[in-house]
Design goal:
Layout: H1 14-31, H2 40-51, H3 66-75, H4 82-94, E1 99-104, E2 109-114, H5 116-123, H6 135-138, H7 142-149, E3 153-156, E4 169-176, E5 183-191, H8 198-222, E6 231-233, E7 241-243, E8 250-251, H9 254-265, H10 272-280, H11 287-301, E9 305-306, E10 311-312, E11 317-318, H12 319-328, H13 332-338, H14 350-370, H15 373-380, H16 389-397, H17 403-419
Parallel strand pairs: 6-11
Antiparallel strand pairs: 1-2, 1-5, 3-4, 4-5, 6-7, 7-8, 9-10
Helix pairs in contact: 4-8, 12-13, 12-14, 15-16, 16-17
């Protein structure tokens, strides 16, 4: 197949292909083997689902409803492009055979629209607004997989990991914030196996690009932020993005990203000596090296960067601060949604490491104190939280669901205990040795995100 994101080759028999994939799916969930007839994007997704202990009979769970859902949707950036989605895909949704759906960056469905009869069929698998359709909750599906791989994709009948979804075919494309290039959600069309065509994939891709272009126009009209301050995003990425307004956001190099994060955290400014200590620690670095870095950064920032002491003349809005502000307000769901990953994950600058650990610790302690199973599970379903033993133990201690769910939690906790050298099979454990030294080691294994 020339395009690996398409479900069917031109002229392929849909019924025959469905049978092949269904047999391959059964072989995988029972024996763990993946046949050559399974597309790579689907095979890799199935492996992620198995690693996340997704049950093949799962049905999506509903996170938000009624007023909570309405408030969340109205505050989401994709609300601003829903008229565009309806204009471009409305006829597809109204033709009686398809559904138009839009989800956020976490796979939570925001809108599901179409013919009422088709919607009623979809409701049986909780394909409804407010339900969570990320891969880690409901397995391989077009919107969830598009978010996982950050690419438009079709998922055809039995390619879906969970059996209740295998009667459907869908095509989805991710949507990005044009200023920060971060994922903010996905646009999807769902229906019968006739959607496994090049046209449906091209349609959702074009719609996603049109939405991004419209968001860019709105951002240009509104400035860098609501109050005109620059916007700095550094969570979950090794190179920060700076939007100072009036143009395309600038991707900073790693050292410049560290400097910007440190200066944003110290609006009062830092002397050259203090900034060098925050950047390089006890390493011997000449003042000329730091001055050269700041000179190059000033070439990017212009009058935004001041000196004596080094400071930013206008304090930027940072995603790091957004998480902290949500925590201060006691809004854990908002804090978790704003946390896109560790702050500059690969940075070893002492000042950045301290900021990163402080934010991690605040968020993790708040989540553990809340004992909210949905929030705990959302954390362990992320790349940075999937190996967090303490969180998995908290989920196990407050477990919800049947025997299969409990068994999956027990398996995961035991896997991580072995990985950390904690072989005691007692459930639940006492405090673990690795958690004692938070100053030197992260509680969980950090991963860099692209």
């Amino acid at each position: 197949m020339l395009n690996p994101w398409l479900a069917l080759e031109t002229g392929a028999d849909a019924a025959e292909r469905t049978g092949q994939v269904r047999r391959a799916h059964e072989e995988f969930v029972t024996q763990g083997a993946i046949g050559a007839q399974v597309r790579n994007v689907v095979a890799e997704s199935w492996q992620r689902c198995a690693g996340a202990s997704v049950e093949p009979e799962s049905v999506a769970r509903i996170d938000l409803a009624d007023d909570d859902l309405d408030a969340y949707r109205s505050a989401h950036p994709l609300d601003r492009v829903m008229p565009l989605f309806r204009e471009l895909l409305g006829t597809v949704a109204d033709d009686g055979a398809h559904l138009l759906s839009v989800c956020d960056e976490n796979g939570r469905m925001l809108w599901v629209e179409g013919h009422s009869q088709v919607q009623r069929h979809a409701e049986r698998m909780n394909f409804v607004p407010g339900a969570r359709w990320s891969e880690r909750y409901i397995g391989t599906n077009a919107p969830g997989t598009a978010l996982a791989v950050d690419h438009a994709v079709q998922i055809f009948t039995a390619e879906h990991y969970c059996r209740p979804v295998q009667a459907w075919t869908c095509a989805a494309a991710p949507v990005h914030d044009p200023r920060t290039h971060r994922l903010i959600g996905a646009i999807d069309i769902t229906g019968g196996d006739h959607l496994a065509s090049p046209q449906s994939l091209a349609l959702v891709q074009a719609t996603a690009r049109a939405a991004e272009a419209h968001l860019a126009e709105l951002a240009a009209a509104g400035g860098a932020s609501a109050d005109g301050a620059p916007v700095l995003n550094a969570l979950g990425c090794d190179e920060a993005l700076l939007d100072a307004g009036g143009g395309t956001p600038v991707r900073l190099g790693r050292r410049h990203s560290e400097i910007m994060v440190l200066l944003a955290a110290h609006p009062e400014g830092l002397t050259g000596e203090r900034l060098a200590l925050e950047l390089y620690g006890e390493r011997t670095v000449t003042p000329v090296t730091l001055r050269a870095e700041l000179s190059r950064l000033r070439g990017l920032l212009g009058s935004l960067l001041d000196s004596r002491p080094y400071r930013l003349r206008t304090a930027p809005r940072t995603d790091h601060d957004a998480v902290g502000e949500a925590l201060a307000e006691g809004d854990l769901p908002a804090a978790l949604a704003a946390y896109r990953g560790p702050l500059l994950p690969l940075s070893e600058a002492p000042g950045v490491v301290r900021l990163r650990r402080r934010l991690e610790d605040r968020l993790r302690r708040a989540l553990l104190s809340s004992r909210d199973p949905s929030l705990l599970e959302e954390w362990v379903r992320t790349p940075w939280g999937e190996d967090d033993l303490e969180m998995w133990e908290a989920l196990l201690a407050g477990r919800q669901g049947g025997e299969a769910r409990t068994a999956a939690l027990v398996r995961r906790v035991r896997e991580l205990r072995r990985a950390y050298g904690l072989e005691n099979p007692r459930m639940p454990p006492a405090r673990h040795p690795y958690a004692e030294d938070r100053g030197a080691h992260a509680t969980y294994r950090q991963r860099s995100r692209p």
